[in-house]
Amino acid sequence: MLLARGLAWSGLLSAAWGLATNEALDFVQLEKRTNCPTDYTDYANVSHPPLSEGKYKLGYQRPPAECRTFVSQEVENKIEELKGVIEDPDLFRLFENSYPNTLDTTVKWRGKAKDSDEELTFVITGDIDAMWIRDSASQLHSYLPFLTNATAESDSLASLFRGLINLQARFLIEWPYCNAFQPPLESGLEPVNNSDASANTKVFPDPDNYTVFECKYELDSIASFLQLSADYYEKTNDSQFFSKYQWTDAVQTLMTVVGEQTYPTYNEDGSIVIAPYTFSAFTNRGTETLNNNAYGNPAAGGTGLVRSAFRPSDDACIYELFVPANMMLAANLERVIPIAKAIKAPQCLIDMMSKRAKLIRDGITKHAVTSEGYFAFEIDGFGSINAMDDTGVPSLLSAPYLGFLERDDKTYQTTRKRILSTSNPYFMKGPVISSISSPHIGPGWGWPMSTITQILTSDDDEEIKDCLRTLVSSTNGLGLIHESIFTFNEEAFTRPWFAWVNGLFGEAILDLYQRKPELLKTSFQ
Ligand SMILES: *[C@@H]1O[C@H](CO)[C@@H](O)[C@H](O)[C@H]1NC(C)=O
Ligand SMILES: *[C@@H]1O[C@H](CO)[C@@H](O)[C@H](O)[C@H]1NC(C)=O
Ligand SMILES: *[C@@H]1O[C@H](CO)[C@@H](O)[C@H](O)[C@H]1NC(C)=O
Ligand SMILES: *[C@@H]1O[C@H](CO)[C@@H](O)[C@H](O)[C@H]1NC(C)=O
Ligand SMILES: *[C@@H]1O[C@H](CO)[C@@H](O)[C@H](O)[C@H]1NC(C)=O
């Protein structure tokens, strides 16, 4: 009987006991766990020696090798390789800390489904102890360059991806409207309380709290499952895997939700269309409940766009035809059609996917491009638009990264210029960071996620260098990327342990290594 790594961290101890009695587990090796941090949130909030040798003196924030939750030799080799490439010592330190953060700290449990050879992977966000569909798909996406084949080895990235696809499929078949989940039963881990949840939260359909951590309907969760699937398939050509478990069922369920969520608020005779999903809560934050008596603000039907109740920030949409998630969905429906064809999924499902992708693309062109030639962030289909961008990917800024369009697309370039200026009501400025921000934390807080997205979508060397300088100089000496930073004071920041954004930063560095390696020689001293 083998135990998962890194279990000494507080809150994970009970997991160790759970695992010890679970015969289905045969994956991860028992490791020496004596020097492991007891809580990585606290660990990440303090600088650890040896400090980097540049002026920012960034701590070394990787947990000791024996405590890491997953080890990929390919990722380790790449970090080692870049040591000789990134010349600025602080920038290299930020990369070596942040890129492996998901693998080092958040693969909370791996195992197999009860009485089955089906792999399962449970990946938490970091300091929020639950698995988000979007975050976990994005967290693994960061390591895609090292996924090269469908090897059955249980310690491979391929196995990690398969396990996540299987677990997401299981969750989404049961609760397709939900965004964040509890550990699977097989893990023996206790469900955790969602202490951030507002009092008296009422959701329809009403989820069970042993499976669901939070049930905010976010269209990008659906797109993220498709992205994760396409990521694995495009690298491995492993169609067999997709026909073996519940993948087709999951896609069918999600396509039903997508169809339901094109509903208009009113029928032609004026009666209210029965909403397939409603959400309300007692809260002092306008973004934590749905307006219009839990329905969300009205949206017109017939635009081709699909509604989303919440944004990727988990904040409520103002207008529910949320454009970035529609972009992400269209791009990823197109990417998974080859899987559906390879496994001979029902033709009507394949037709539905390609039709939906086209409807969304046409709908965005027709309804979401303003007369000034930029993309709206949200529309209601009645003529109202929300002209802004929010930091959370999918965002308008990330449209090329999502695979929806090319970087040099004219509408995108017009949009980009606008959202990276004070014409965007959520653009935050200050001496520490100037970036696209979010109502999620509030006024005055800049978000590194959009600074990173800026790098991933720019061809301009000076812009990229400015972004790198911002990132390397704004970690409060901790050497990890934070969720948000007060634009006038780097000591004020949120979420010391937010794995997704750290992996995204690593992606941006690897992207530069391919596209513009000379920029990795820049000094930020
Ligand atoms: C991180 O440390 C600072 C003090 O340096 C403290 O104010 C803050 O609450 C800590 N954050 C967390 C999440 O523990
Ligand atoms: C498949 O990937 C693994 C690493 O995950 C690697 O060790 C192995 O050599 C690869 N096999 C082939 C045939 O490329
Ligand atoms: C789930 O809900 C029940 C009943 O409201 C409550 O007693 C329990 O503590 C909740 N569990 C979690 C993990 O939130
Ligand atoms: C969750 O919170 C409820 C009450 O708020 C408490 O009764 C229950 O024990 C908690 N469950 C866990 C797993 O902490
Ligand atoms: C992918 O796998 C299928 C069989 O499942 C095979 O026919 C095809 O040649 C493979 N394609 C590549 C590029 O390896």
UniProtKB/TrEMBL annotation:
The keyword Signal applies. Keywords: Signal. GO terms for molecular function: catalytic activity. Gene3D superfamilies: 1.50.10.10. Residues 1-18 form the signal peptide. It holds the Pfam family Glyco_hydro_125. This is Metal-independent alpha-mannosidase. GO terms for biological process: carbohydrate metabolic process. The lineage of its organism: Eukaryota, Fungi, Dikarya, Ascomycota, Pezizomycotina. It comes from Exophiala xenobiotica.
